[in-house]
Structures are given as structure tokens and as C-alpha cells.
Specification:
This protein is mainly alpha-helical. The protein has helices spanning 19-33, 46-98, 103-112, and strands at 37-39, 42-44. Helix content is 59%, strand content 5%.
């Protein structure tokens, strides 16, 4: 199988809800015990842990606000886009019916069709094949 690069970088931990509180509590323990140590991020002590807790709270709040804004904007926009798509499809069908036997109009209407995105094959290239 070999070396596969998947997942989080070495040393990173996935944290969940309440991580800011855990950082605060660990900071309090470090303060009570007078602990500190140095790692790749610098000196970790009670103050550093409290600072991380404050940063985590701010990040969580910003993330929550961004998600809320995304939902408030994105979902209604997608609904409107779907409604426009249905109207476009109906208008295209009407135009096709109204244009029967007019090859030029039918060709134009055919160019307006919405086609699903096609996936390119992995071995396809943009450059033409070189002569041998």
C-alpha cells in the first residue's frame, strides 16, 4: 500500500464542543501546579492556555456567526435559483414548441440547454498527441 497522506498532520488533534472550557480548566491546573514546558509552539504555561481558550471562544463565535450568515443567504438563494431554473426550463420548452420547423431557431435553442457537467477522463490531455 505504501505511504498514504491522509487525515490530519501529525500532532494535530480533532477537538469538539467545549474545547475552550477544557483549555481554561487545564490552564487553571497549570497555574495551580506551576507547570510549564516548551514544544514546537513555544512555551506552554497557564497564561498560554488561557490565551488559547480565549482565541478558541472567539473562533467558535466567528464560526457560528459565519455558518448562520451562510444559511441565511445561501438557502434562500438556492431556492430562488431552483425556481428560476424551473422557469427557464419551461420557457425553453415553450420556445422549442414555438420554433418547430425553424432550424436556425432550434439550433439556437439547443445551445441554451443546460447540460450536466461532464467529467473528464483521467488520461485525457489538453495537448494534442505528438506525431511519432
Amino acid at each position: 500500500m505504501g505511504n498514504k497522506k491522509k487525515g490530519r498532520p501529525v500532532g494535530e488533534v480533532q477537538v469538539g464542543v467545549g474545547f475552550d472550557e477544557k483549555l481554561k480548566r487545564l490552564g487553571e491546573l497549570f497555574r495551580a501546579k506551576g507547570w510549564s514546558f516548551t514544544n514546537g509552539s513555544g512555551t506552554i504555561d497557564a497564561d498560554a492556555l488561557q490565551r488559547m481558550a480565549a482565541e478558541q471562544e472567539a473562533d467558535t463565535r466567528a464560526d457560528r456567526e459565519a455558518w448562520s450568515n451562510f444559511q441565511q443567504i445561501h438557502e434562500p438563494m438556492m431556492k430562488r435559483q431552483g425556481e428560476r431554473g424551473a422557469s427557464f426550463s419551461a420557457a425553453l420548452a415553450f420556445a422549442r414548441t414555438a420554433s418547430r420547423r425553424n432550424r436556425d431557431l432550434l439550433k439556437l435553442i439547443d445551445e441554451l440547454k443546460i447540460r450536466p457537467a461532464t467529467r473528464r477522463r483521467a488520461d485525457a490531455t489538453d495537448a494534442p498527441a505528438l506525431p511519432s
